[in-house]
Amino acid sequence: MSESDRSATTSLESISADLETATPSCPDSTRRALILTALAAGACIAASKPAAAAGEDQPGSDERPQKADVLIFSEGEHAGEVIKTEDLKLGGPPVRAWPKDPKTSVVRNGSRLNELLVVRLDPAELDDETRTRAADGIIAYSAICSHAGCPVTGWLKGAAGDNDVLKCFCHNSEFDPRHSAEVVFGPATRRLAALPLEMADGSLTVAAKFIGKVGQQAG
Q: pLDDT tens digit string along 121-149?
């Protein structure tokens, strides 16, 4: 028996003894019912402890994306699954993702600053700088706006052009993913941090650490 199991058993025995002592004048049937109710509640609490422990952040989950990490869906029906090229529609919209260490299976979701926007575009549309960070036209940017730290959730035609852009609805900042997520509209003064990608053995992986500061601008 594990230490936690022994502790849980001791606690349940203590509850039973306490109720026996506290209810001497109650009929036997009433006392038995109280004891069974308390034991059931204690068992539920004891059983829930491993689940809570399993939900705790694992070592490395708050580290920034590392080289060779894979990308997994962070939401939706495929949450937790590795993102493949065929999962991404050419021309967008982007999908939200977490980096995952393929060796330890640790998902780096311990910090909201690690969430990514992954979008697949025509490589011919990308400028030279962006193309060097892309894998077959697939590019990744921080999902956190560089203005006030809100999540970037929009994908629509920009205010200053015909192409779809990444948009933060908090203050309407817009970023062009084809040009290193530079600001094309709104109050943001700094582009979104970019995460270089590459294809390794047919899989989409992280090629290097973030380029640029992740999150809101100082001041």
A: 999 999 999 999 999 999 999 999 999 99
Furthest C-alpha separation in the chain: 85
3-state helix, strand, coil in the chain (%, to 5): 30, 25, 45
- List all residues 6 or more positions away from 105 whose beta carbon is below 8 Å from its beta carbon: none
Residue 78 falls in which region: left (phi positive, over 0), alpha (psi -120 to 50) or beta = alpha
Quick one: pLDDT at residue 30? Answer: 53
By the 10 Å C-beta count (0-12 exposed, 13-18 middle, 19+ buried), 181 is classed as buried
Give the DSSP letter of residue 192: P
- Other residues' Cβ atoms within 10 Å of the Cβ of residue 134: 22
- C-alpha 54/C-alpha 65 separation (Å) is 22
d(CA 14, CA 20): 10
